[in-house]
Amino acid sequence: MFLVYADQKGRVFDHPDLFAVGRNGEMLTEILEEELIPLPDGATLVSLPGTAPVGMDPDTGEMVKLDGYTAVGALIPQGYTRLLLPGYVKTDKKSKLPLFGYTAVVWKDDAFWIAGRQSDDPHQWNPLNAPMDELRQRVERTLALYPDNRILQHLSHCALEYECLTAANNFFHRWEGALPVSYTCNAGCYGCISEQPDDSGFPSPQTRMNFKPTEDELVQVMLHHLQTPDSIISFGQGCEGEPSTMAHLIVPAIRRVRAETDMGYININTNAGLTDHIKGIVDAGLDLMRISIISAIDEHYNAYYRPRHYTLEHVARSAEYASSKGVYTSINYLCFPGVFDREEEMEAMIAFIRRTGIKLIQLRNLNIDPESYLAMIPKAKGEIFGMKQAIEIYQEELPDVVIGSFTHVPPQELRRRKQVPQGR
Question: Is residue 423 in a domain?
C-alpha cells in the first residue's frame, strides 16, 4: 500500500517506493490491511494545504517527509467511518485546515483505498441519488407551490449551493428531510460549520439561517414531507443553531401536524442541553431524538461545545426523559482517531449510553483541524486502542445498541405510539 500525495498544482501521485502511513491523534502509524476498504462511491480526494506528506521506507521502517509536496486525504460519504487520518506534518504551524474530515488514503492493487469501515448502508446518502438537473426542477416546482415559505426558500439554497442531501430530500419527497428552525444557539461549538467567531481562523463552510420561521411555515414543511410511513422530518440542521431554543414554535407545530396525520416520524437533532424545552417537545409527540456529543467527560465536552447555561448532566437527563417516554434515542457521536478510541473516553461513553437508554450510535467523522482540536482537549490518560478495535469493544459491551452512521426508522418493537390529539 503506497503513499498518495499531491504536487503544488493539485495533481495526485502514488509513490513507487514509500508505504503510506496514517495518523491516530498525534501519532504516525502503520496502516494495517484489515483497516482498508476500497475508496467508496461519492468520496473525494483533496490536498491538505500547508502540509507535507509522510511515508514509510519499507526496508528500514523509518518515516520519510516529502518536501515540496502536500498530503492527500479522502472526504468520505455518510455511512463510512474514518479509522485513521492521513500521514502528514504541517509546514506552516499556524495554518488551520478547512473544516472537513480527512481520511487516510493509499494506492493498492491499482486503485485507491481508505483507512475506514462501512458502518451503515450508504445508499440513501449517495450524492448520485440527487442528480442536479432533476433537483433544480423539483426545487422550482416546490417553491411554486409554496411561494411564501421562507424555510423552503432557505433549503433550496442548501440543496443547490451546498449540495446538502438532507435538504435535497425535501424536494425529492423522500427519506429524511430537513426542517431548520433556529438562528440562535446555546453552545459555541469549536467546529461549528455555520457560525465561527471572526478570530477563529476557520471559514464557515455554510451560512446559518437568519430569520425566525412562523409556526405555519413549520407545519407546511412537515405536512409536505410526512406523506409516507418511512418519512422523517428533522429539526436541527448544520445551517442552524440549537432547535430546542425554539420550543415555543416546535411544540404547537408538532401538535397541529399530529392532529392531521400520524404518518412518518418527527425527529430532532439537538445538543439536548435545555432539558425543560426537550421535555415539552417530547410530550408534544416527538418520535426520534439524536443528541450531538463528542465526549461523556465534562472537561472534554465543555472544551468543544462551550455550553451556555447547561452542563453534560442536563444532556443526560434529557436523554433519560426521552427514552422513558418511548422516543427512539440516538447519539450523533463525533469521532476522531486517537480520541474516540482512548480508554477513558470509551469507559465514560459506555456508562452514559447505559444510563440514558440510547438505542443507536451514529458514528460521525469530526470535521476539524486536527492540531487545533488536540491542543484544546485533555491529554490521553489510558490506553489508545485504535478505531477498529474500539468499535468492536462497543459492539461487545453494548450488544443491544445499533452502531450506524445516520438516523434510522426504529424497528417495529421500538416504535413510539403516535400521539394524535383527542377529538381529531
Answer: no
